[in-house]
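for the recovery benchmark. tokens below, seq after
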């Protein structure tokens, strides 16, 4: 993506924030400070929260996850039926319109699902290959036939990346133009996208739940530096901000003008490892890295006890999470011996860091110090957050801390993406294990909950043994809002219900 942050300049950004705050106050527009700018509004081409969290209120899905993050509920599909053999689903599409006033039909829903399955640019095709056919039998009836019964299928329809887009709009505008200024099916439409600065949304009067929406609009504003973002909320230049640093929670709680919002999450922070780079392709080396990192020390020092040590890629509290998944003890001497036994010495790693991310920078220093005790050198490279993502996708790193939040209730999505040899190289790690890949596919097909649970227990054990990445910690969502803002919350999957947010 094109990043304009450095050319705009901090002073210009702060001035823009002040002007925006005055406008937003007058117009009932909610301002949200976040780190990075978005990358696209083409839902099939991203796996980033910075994109999904914005377009979850620009697009709508057939089936939604409720506010508790525990069950499915109707979205654009007001009801559905399933055949006894689990192969045929019939969805009744409600009477709805796109933001341009055109009718939203079952044909648009079919187009969107076949596009996420078939488009070469789709990052999510593996999860939708189970679809054999998706046909609009009439304008309000979508019939989907599966190649085989699939336990997670309904859950995958709630994925923001499977949002319903306008077939006519995509075909007339083309994917590049649509990705810049899409035709909305959700509560807000895109008024303007100032790259590197902000996305300006306005209320979509054609949204099928338009009466529910209290805001006139929303501005998602990029403020990469954590400290600056918090100061802007305290000064009233922003209504809200996300990604509150752990170190600032207690201080912000004491501000009489603010509410610190701590919501349950499915967030898991982990250390990505690029298996395609030299010695990192050896399992014994990755196991040594895992043993050389003191996760408890990181949790204590970095999260201020808000986090808990992670023992699995499946987050605590999520479906099929295995609480007894084995963990390697912190033992730098043993790690040093393992490296020697593997014929590895003077291991030097390029450690990619998001500049301005306080937690990321603190974690990097700790990990660097811990690895040094095992004879491993970590060269820290700070880069702009958007650049960091591009470099990670390109494989231009050895190790880098990242995080994941679940987008659907079922573990298949994350499992497919990080273990199942997906199109994005298993979340940029280049991890490969054919036995794991086969089990990922089988778990998707297994309809017996007990047998399926055991499969995911086995997958968690196998991932831990292989060290696909290094699990670090689980933590809640921590956001901050000024006292005049109500109903600014996320569900455990990360969705903001901005259609219910009120600015008093």
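predicted aa per position
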């Amino acid at each position: 993506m094109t990043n304009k942050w450095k050319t705009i300049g901090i002073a210009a950004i702060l001035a823009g924030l002040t002007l925006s705050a005055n406008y937003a106050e007058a117009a009932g527009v909610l301002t949200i400070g976040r780190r990075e700018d978005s990358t696209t509004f083409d839902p099939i081409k991203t796996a980033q929260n910075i994109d999904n969290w914005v377009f979850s209120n620009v697009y709508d899905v057939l089936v939604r996850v409720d506010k508790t993050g525990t069950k499915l509920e109707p979205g654009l599909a007001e009801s559905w039926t399933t055949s006894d053999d689990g192969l045929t689903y019939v969805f009744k599409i409600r009477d709805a319109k796109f933001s341009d006033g055109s009718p939203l039909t079952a044909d648009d829903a079919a187009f969107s699902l076949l596009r996420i399955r078939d488009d070469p640019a789709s990052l999510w095709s593996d999860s939708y290959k189970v679809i054999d056919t998706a046909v609009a039998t009439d304008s309000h009836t979508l019939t989907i036939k599966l190649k085989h019964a699939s336990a997670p299928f309904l859950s995958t329809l709630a994925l923001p990346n499977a949002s319903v887009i306008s077939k006519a709009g995509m075909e007339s505008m083309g994917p590049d133009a649509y990705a810049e200024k899409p035709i909305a099916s959700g509560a807000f439409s895109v008024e303007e996208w100032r790259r590197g600065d902000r996305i300006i949304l306005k209320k979509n009067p054609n949204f099928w739940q338009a009466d529910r929406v209290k805001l006139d609009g929303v501005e998602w504003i990029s403020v990469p530096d954590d400290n600056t973002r918090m100061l802007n909320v305290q000064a009233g230049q922003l209504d809200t901000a996300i990604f509150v640093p752990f170190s600032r929670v207690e201080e912000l709680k004491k501000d009489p003008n603010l509410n610190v919002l701590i919501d349950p999450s499915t967030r898991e922070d982990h250390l990505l490892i690029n298996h395609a780079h030299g010695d990192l392709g050896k399992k014994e080396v990755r196991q040594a890295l895992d043993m050389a990192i003191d996760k408890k020390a990181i949790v204590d020092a970095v999260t201020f006890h808000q986090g808990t040590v992670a023992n699995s890629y499946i987050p605590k509290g999520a479906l099929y999470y295995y609480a007894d998944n084995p963990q390697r003890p912190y033992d730098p001497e043993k790690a040093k011996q393992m490296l020697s036994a593997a014929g590895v010495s003077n291991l030097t790693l390029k450690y990619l860091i998001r500049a301005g991310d306080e937690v990321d920078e603190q974690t990097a220093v700790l990990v660097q110090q811990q690895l040094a005790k095992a004879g491993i050198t970590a060269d820290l490279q700070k880069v702009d957050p958007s650049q960091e993502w591009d470099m990670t996708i390109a494989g231009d790193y050895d190790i880098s801390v990242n995080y994941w939040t679940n987008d659907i209730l079922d573990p298949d999505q994350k499992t497919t993406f990080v273990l199942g040899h997906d199109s994005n190289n298993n979340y940029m790690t280049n991890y490969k294990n054919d036995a794991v890949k086969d089990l990922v596919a089988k778990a998707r097909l297994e309809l017996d909950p007990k047998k399926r649970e055991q499969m995911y227990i086995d997958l968690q054990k196998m991932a831990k043994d292989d060290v696909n990445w290094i699990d670090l910690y689980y933590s809640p969502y921590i956001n901050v809002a000024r006292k005049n803002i109500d109903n600014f919350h996320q569900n455990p999957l990360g969705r903001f219900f901005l259609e219910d947010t009120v600015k008093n």
